[in-house]
Amino acid sequence: MSAQFRRADGARVLADLNALRAFGRYKTGVHRPTFSEAHRQSLSWLAERLPDAQLTPTIDGIGNVLGTSAKPGPKLLAGSHLESQNHAGWLDGPLGVIYALEAARVLNPDPSIPGAVEVASWCDEEGHFGSFLGSRSYVGQVSEADIDAARDRSSPRSMREALTEMGLAGRPRLQAERGRHIGYLEAHIEQGDTLEHSELKIGIVTSIVGIWQYRIVFAGEQNHAGTTRMAVRKDAGLALARFCVAIDARFPAACGPRTVWTTGRITLDPGAPSIIPGRAEMLFQIRDDDPAVIARLEQLLHALADADSASGSCQIAVERIRTGAPAMMDAAFQDTIEAASRDLAGGRSLRMPSGAGHDAQVLATIMPAGMLFVPSIGGVSHHWTENTADADIVTGADVFVETCRRLLADAASIIPQAG
Amino acid sequence: MSAQFRRADGARVLADLNALRAFGRYKTGVHRPTFSEAHRQSLSWLAERLPDAQLTPTIDGIGNVLGTSAKPGPKLLAGSHLESQNHAGWLDGPLGVIYALEAARVLNPDPSIPGAVEVASWCDEEGHFGSFLGSRSYVGQVSEADIDAARDRSSPRSMREALTEMGLAGRPRLQAERGRHIGYLEAHIEQGDTLEHSELKIGIVTSIVGIWQYRIVFAGEQNHAGTTRMAVRKDAGLALARFCVAIDARFPAACGPRTVWTTGRITLDPGAPSIIPGRAEMLFQIRDDDPAVIARLEQLLHALADADSASGSCQIAVERIRTGAPAMMDAAFQDTIEAASRDLAGGRSLRMPSGAGHDAQVLATIMPAGMLFVPSIGGVSHHWTENTADADIVTGADVFVETCRRLLADAASIIPQAG
C-alpha cells in the first residue's frame, strides 16, 4: 500500500502560498477584500497556474475560478477562496486553494491515477458582498436579482460596479454539472487552538456548525444627559450592557460543550456623549451543530428579554435574522482523511466540528463533502497575525494529496471509467 | 412698585417662537443644525426683527447675531442660540432669544427705562462644529486656527466651507467690549422635570454644572466568533458591558444628590457579527457642580478599571478628555429673578443648578451672569417632542422682561449714565 502514496512538494506549496501573500500584503498578513486589485491579481495568478495541473481555467461571471480536466475517470472537486477579511491572515482561504492545486499537479498528470482533481476558488467566502456568493452561485442558489442587490459592506460600491471593474461583467456563471464530481474536499486552517493544545496535526471535520444570528433592540427614552435625573432615566445603552452580562451569566448552564456566542456589534442611538441613548441595538450570534441546543438558548434569550422588559425601564425585542442549519460532512470522506493521517501524519488527527462557516457547507447541499484542518498558531484567526508552522502546512498538504488519491481510487473501483 | 412693572406681549412671543419653528420644521420640533439653510434663515429673521427694538443688527464672521443699542444708560446683554440639535425641540435656544428680543422691544423704546437690552444669538451652542464656538469667540477664546480646524460632526464639511456657504467668510468677529454690559441674562427650558413635578414656573439657576468626559478603552483580543472557545476569549465588548453595569452599581453610593453620569457612545472594533471584538471604547460623562464629588467618582472609575484589568481578560484604560469647571451665577441676578418671580409668577420659583451647559457659563467668565428656566413638559429635551405649555412660556417672558427692567434700574441707580 505505501508504495502507492503520493506526497506533496512541500517547498512548492510554501512558495505558492508566499506568492499569493504578496497580493495585498499587510504586515505579516494580507488585506485582499473581494474584488480589490489584489484580489483580481490573485485570481489571475491562480488561473495561470492551473494548466500546470492539466486543468483548463475559467474565471466566471461572479469571480469563481474553476480548473476543469479532460482526463477520463472520476473527478474530485477541491478548493477554497482567495479573498481575505480586511487586514487578516495569509492562509485563510489560500491554504485550501494551494492544497487543491498541489493535489491536481501531483495526481492529474499521473496516468496510473484514475481520474483527476478539479480546482476551485470560490468568490467572496468572506462575505464582503454577501454570504458565500461564489459557491452558492455554483450550486444554483444565487439569482441575477441577488447580484443586483449586493453591495460592498465597507464601501458604497455595488457588486455590479465591482464586477465591471474586475472585467467580469457579462460573463456566464459556472453551474455545477450534476453527477460530474464524486464530492468536494476543502482544507483550511483550524482558526482555533484545539489542535495546537493537543499537539495534533490534522482536524477531520465532522460537521460545520449552523449560525443563528439575532438583532436585539432596546427601546428606552432619549433625553438630555445633564438635566435628566438618574432615577427617571430609561437608558437603552445601560439596558443593553445589563443584557450582555445576563447572557454571560445564564448561557453556560444551558449551552452545549462547544457552543459559542458573540456580541459583535453595538450601536447606541443617537450615539452622542451628551444624550442618553433612547435606542440601542446589538448583533448577537450563536453557533452550534445541534439544533436542540440552539432552540434551548433561543428560548432563554427570549425569557431574559421578557423578564427585563417587564421589570426594567426599557423594552427589549429579540429578532432572529439568520438561521443556519449545520452541514454534516460525508462519513466516507472523514474515514479517508483519517486513514491518510494515520499514514502521513503519524495518526495525530482528531474528529471535530467546524465552528466557522466554509464553502464546503454549500457544496455539501449537492454532493458528498469533507474538510480537513491544520493547526493555527495560538488559535488566531481573522487577524493579520494568523499563522501556521511551515512543517504543519507541509504535513497537511501530504495528507490532502493522499486523501484525494484514495478518494479517486475508491471511486474508480466502483464507477466505470468514462471516455 | 407694581406700577413700574413691564410685561411681555405674550401673543407676540408665541407668534415669534412659532415663526422660528417654521425654519427646519421636523414633526412638532425642528431640525436646524448649525449653518444649515434653516439656520441661515433663522439668523436673517432675527436680524430683521432687531430694529423693532431699536437695535442695530450685525451677523458676524462666526455666525453670532448681535443687536446693539445707541440708547444712553446701562446695557444688559441677553440671548441664547437659534440652531438646534438634530431632529430636536423648537424651544431649546429660541426661547431665550425671543425673550431677549421681547425685553428689548418692551424696554428699549421706553424713555422712562434707563438703558437698554442688547440681544445676542450665539452660534453653535449645540456643538455641531465645536464647543460654544460663538460665545467663546465673543469673549476672545477662539483663534482663527480653531476655526480652521473645526469640522461638522455629522458631515465632511469644514467650518470654513460652511461659513463660505453662509456668506459669512471674511467678516470680522465681534468681541466683547469690556465694561459695556452690566451682565448677561439667559432664559432656557429646564430640560428636566423638577419644575413640572413641583408645579413651579421659574427655575433660578445657581450654577451651571461642570462636565467631565472620559474615553474608556478596553483592550482584548480580536478573534473568530465561530472557532474561539468561550473559555479562552478576551472579549473587549463583554468587558465594556460589565464595566457599565459595575458603574451603575457602585456610583450611587459615591455620588452627590444631583450627580448624573452617562455612557453616550459605544464602539466595538471591528464591529462585525462574526468577529470577537478585540477593542471596545465608550464615551462616559459625569456632571456635577461640586468638583469634590467629581474627584471622588473619578477615583472610583480608575479603581474599577484597575480591578477589572487585574482580574479580567482585558486591559481597561480611563482617559479624561474634557474637564469642565462649574460656573457660578451672579447672586444679585439670582435675587432679582426671584423678586420678579414673586411679583409675576406667584413666587413659584426654585433655585437650582443647571445640569446642561449654556452660553451663560462662557459669558460668566467676563461679566456677571444669570439664567432662568421655564418648565419642560415631561422633562423631555434634545428630542422633537420637547415642549413647554404656552401659559408657562408667557409667564417666563413676563418674569424675564421684569428682571431686565430691574437689573437696568438697579444699575442706573449706581452707574452714572453715559452719552
From TrEMBL, chains A, B:
Sample GO molecular function, one term: hydrolase activity
Pfam families linked to this entry: M20_dimer, Peptidase_M20
Domain of life: Bacteria
Entry keyword annotation includes Hydrolase: yes
Keywords linked to the UniProt accession: Hydrolase, Manganese, Metal-binding, Transferase
Cleavable signal peptide: none
Domain Peptidase M20 dimerisation positions: 209-308
Cofactor list: Mn(2+)
CDD domains associated with the record: M20_bAS
InterPro entries (alphabetical): Amidase_Cbmase (IPR010158), Bact_exopeptidase_dim_dom (IPR036264), Peptidase_M20 (IPR002933), Peptidase_M20_dimer (IPR011650)
NCBIfam families per record: hydantase
Subunit structure: Homodimer.
Assigned protein family: Belongs to the peptidase M20 family.
Protein name: Zn-dependent hydrolase
